[in-house]
Amino acid sequence: MARVLRMACIATLAITLAAAVSYSATVTVTIIAETRDESFKWQTEMIQRFEAAHPNIKVDVVSTAGSGLGPKMQTMLAGGAPLDIGFHDPYFVVDWGKMGLLEDLAPFVARERQYRDWYPAALDLYRTRNALYGLPQDLQLAGIFYNKDHYEEAGLPFPRANWTYDDLRTNAINLKRVEADGTVSRHGFKIPTSRNYIPIIWAYGGDLFDDWADPTRFIGNTPEVRAAMEYLADLVVMGAVQDKATHGRYSINNAFRQQLVTMGQTNTVVMATGFQSITEFDWDVAPLPVGPAGRIPFINGIGWMVFSSSKCKEETLELLRFLTSPEALQRRVEMTGLVPPSAQVLQRHWISRLSIPAGRTLLLQDLEKAKSPWPLHADLFKVVDQELQGVIWGEKAIGSALQLIEDAINALIK
User: Fold this and answer.
1) Which helix (H) or strand (E) covers residue 241, if one does?
2) From the CB of residue 383, how many other CB atoms can be counted at a distance below 10 Å?
3) Do residues 300 and 374 touch, judged by C-beta distance below 8 A?
4) What does the alpha-carbon distance between residue 413 and residue 82 come to, in Å, rounded to a whole number?
5) Is the dihedral of CA 7, 8, 11, 12 positive or negative?
6) Does 307 lie in the same domain as 286?
7) pLDDT tens profile 339-385
8) The domain that contains 123 carries what CATH number?
9) To 10 degrees, what angle do helices 398-413 and 378-392 make?
């Protein structure tokens, strides 16, 4: 009897110890909450699946409400709060990588088969100094979105796959609508905002920096850059685009939806979150036009990043692997409509899932040559943009603006 009791006690103790070990072995991975509604729903579902498959890993999702994405992460890091995975624009990821705050993901990506079909240009968004500091959540592919009804009303053929910037200018002039009293009720095109006019510079054979992620000098004081900026300024002079005041009052999303412009350059995020619900008119998308030097597609993407201060790197990378798996990317396409960085998931699920726009496959043209100005630090681009915006709106001479940029940027870099 005593032996039976001893065996029972030993068994009970073993179970208790096993439970204690299991409990103590639970690891918590902390991740920043997605800021777009549909993306947050996807993140929530994926974390539930992950935790079910990994009972020893708990995922703590931290909201950025009331503080903003960047400030929230900065505050947590400064205060020593646990933070393993975050996300941000390429320039943010690259900058924090240079500061030593992020894990180099290059070895991780090299050993994981699931990344072998990812577009190289997508990963290049976060590369600098032989390191890879981010992985794209999804891709922002740029195109010229246009109102098909306006084109038909003006008797113009729709943009072709190989159309040029000369074609865009001609179409924009012909698509402008002037009312009987002389007021302009519609413009043909909208000047690209933020960094989105940079592909025009590339199409004219110019560039602004020797390296957008880790620049050592400004290289934009050239005839090619002058020609590109003169093209944009001419659109303003010709009245093919909105004046500066009107331009500033409307985002491309609002201007296009309200039919104040026929064409606008934006990306697949705006397409998914803003244009898919349009029922008032028919619309489509064309690739970026060809310039004198050809066409270089524009790409961007918010990137996941792993903090080097993480105390649970193995579990953190396991979560990152799960969130970027083909199955997770497919579900993200289904829930958000956003473009995945995996070529196979894009071809099998994103293209087939959509019925509009009809020209969506054109956004993939020349994707292997895609570049991005987004890895550049925001402070440097602010110097450039302030001067070039003055050129676009006829407030500054192109020659003096480029010289001022060159002097200011090279001084900052040194």
Assistant:
1) none
2) 16
3) yes
4) 33
5) negative
6) no
7) 999 999 999 999 998 889 999 999 999 998 999 999 999 999 999 99
8) 3.40.190.10
9) 170
